[in-house]
Predict the structure of D-alanine--D-alanine ligase.
Amino acid sequence: MSQVVPAVRVSDPAMFGRVAVLMGGTSAEREVSLDSGNGVLAALRLRGVDAHAVDGIPALVDGIRAGSIDRVFNILHGNHGGGEDGVVQGLLEALGVPYTGPGVLGSALTMDKIRTKQVWIAEGLPTPRFVRIAPGGDLRAAVRELGYPVFVKPSNEGSSVGVFRILSEGDLAPAIAFAAGYAGELLAEQMVQGQEYTVAILGEIALPSIRIVPAGEWYDYHAKYIADDTQYLCPGMEGEEEEAVRALSLAAFRAVGCSGWGRVDVMRDRVRGLQLIEVNTAPGMTSHSLVPKAAAQLGIDYAELCWRVLEQTL
């Protein structure tokens, strides 16, 4: 299936002015963000952009006050000092500084997996059944309500931080121990038994899907960022199925108020078909990351991808 990619809109890097590549921060995903940010920084400089590394929100504020920042390429991940929860977006909106990625609403909403799923359900979009676990709530009861197998995970984290795969009663102890020391909401989610996919969004198009095939039993933090034996098959589907997963992902992205660029994670259940899992509004841009892999299928290399994302701020 062929896909038409719009031409780049500008060719002069001076149009962007001084660009802050916002990375690092203080979230649980700091190291991944630094890896992504350094890749973006090198790519933009390669294409002549006046780009500079900025580590975290306080340094960003200092740079804006000093008049040394014209726009922001946000590659902060996570919340609590990360850049995916709407806080940075609100700051930049208030100060009139253009930035990459979704705005305040889309960023804040999709950082919260529970509320994201509630919107999808209201819109009639498919997503696995779940039970909300309030801080201090009964995790064991939530899991039993759904029935095994389930995933238990924080509502407001990413990069597989604090995710537990629970196949039976004997797997509960580590999740219960984590919950006891975790201040936020958790959710127990019915496990999808089938294939895992992700679809990147770039502007108005959904890029080719990627089927993720980890060497181990599931796609955990190690498989995402460390292992070299995870397979990424792109496109992940063919024909009408590929069109369907792209269309669903684009609809899911828009339903939660997102625009610009991002990534939608999807699974195909053996019985229930496609199921939406979550949205990433500042996707990883490391050597293992998935958006660059999908873009490459359309002839967009890493540096051009960074340019196209930044171009959306003009």
